[in-house]
Specification:
The protein is an all-alpha fold. It has helices spanning 2-37, 44-65, 76-103, 106-113, 116-127, 134-153, 159-182, 190-223, 227-252, 257-279, 285-309. The chain is globular.
């Protein structure tokens, strides 16, 4: 009886973790799109900077004030030699995500972000000459095919937004690959990652945001009919972006690797559906099919990686195949799970 109750509680806890992760992720994406499209606040650098500031404050409160997470101590020298380069790539990744949201629909942007597994594998193969099992390459075929079909049939195609999303995938892959060497010896969770990287990202992005978008923001403040209520929404998106990082930590510890992978791909489908219901961007049948093929390919890719990770020692495996749930956690939220946008 007790075992049954524990099993039911475990299932309920996992479901609750997934739902709150979906909720924060979809909400952040929709609010960011709303900021660019409905509030006419077309300043992606400043929106990103607000997210970094809110995340820095939130991580400090969680770790230093509430002490909900232990601080992973990093030497001062390592902060500049290891964390700072990662923060630079992290910053580029988030900015490109917000730039793409400004110019293309959420559905198209989310589908392109699913291209990240392919760019990661190709970069590791080209630059580091790492071995990959043939099943990994096979799992990339539907991802690439789905992206091509979606791009060709996208009714709201914008080259700048498309390039920003595509280069965002490259930035995410670069960050993941660099993490293997730069952060070797440190086992970061999502909160500690934000604690160290968000302040650096704010410092990197603050000056360009002021120089490139400062005058435009002042003009927007004078012309927008309700600037203060709009600013509340903008800063709320920053708070929710931090909450998303916290939700990632919770879902990682409440689900298995396979569940995490499937839930991540279903989350993209939920984001696409919700964004279409709100913004009503035109989606053709071919476009929807391409998005579906991409998500199925991502699910198959995650399944293949999981199967390879279970192989007996000595069997050829893909490099850095995750051996536990924590290794499946990207260094930032953002995909997904750099879904942090």
């Amino acid at each position: 009886m007790e075992e049954g109750l524990l099993c039911q509680w475990s299932v309920f806890r996992s479901l609750l973790a997934i739902l709150q992760w979906w909720g924060f992720n979809v909400t952040v994406i929709i609010i960011n799109k709303w900021i660019f499209q409905k509030l006419d606040f077309k300043f992606p650098l400043s929106v990103s900077c607000v997210h970094f500031i809110c995340s820095s404050i939130g991580a400090f409160i969680v770790i230093k004030v509430l002490k909900l997470k232990p601080l992973i101590v990093v030497e001062a020298e390592d902060r500049w030699k290891r964390i700072f380069p990662m923060s630079f790539v992290f910053c580029i990744n988030i900015v490109l995500g917000n730039v793409s949201l400004r110019y293309i629909p959420v559905s198209f942007m989310q589908t392109i972000k699913s291209f990240t597994p392919a760019t990661t594998v190709v970069l590791q193969w080209l630059v580091w000459r790492k071995y990959f099992d043939w099943r990994i390459w096979a799992s990339l075929v539907p991802i690439v095919g789905g992206i091509l079909l979606t791009s060709i049939t996208e009714l709201s195609f914008n080259m700048l937004g498309f390039c920003a999303a595509l280069f965002g995938c490259l930035a995410t892959s670069t960050k993941t690959i660099l993490a293997e060497s730069l952060l070797h010896g440190y086992k970061f969770d999502s909160i500690n990652t934000v604690y160290y990287m968000a302040p650096f990202a704010t410092m990197i992005l603050g000056v360009p945001a002021v120089l490139l978008e400062g005058n435009g923001i002042l003009d927007w403040l004078h012309t927008h009919p309700n600037p203060w209520s709009a600013l509340v929404i903008i800063f709320s998106s920053g708070v929710l972006a931090f909450c998303l990082n916290f939700s990632i930590f919770y879902v990682i510890h409440s689900t298995t690797a396979v569940t995490f992978n499937v839930a991540g791909n279903l989350k993209v489908a939920v984001a696409v559906l919700v964004s279409w219901l709100i913004f009503r961007n035109p989606i053709s049948a071919s476009n929807a099919i391409g998005c579906g093929i991409t998500l199925l390919g991502c699910t198959f890719y995650g399944y293949v990686r999981h199967i390879l990770s279970q192989q007996a020692p000595g069997t050829p495996r893909t490099p850095r195949t995750p051996r536990g749930r924590m290794e499946l956690l990207p260094l930032v939220n953002n995909e997904k799970l750099d879904d942090k946008v």
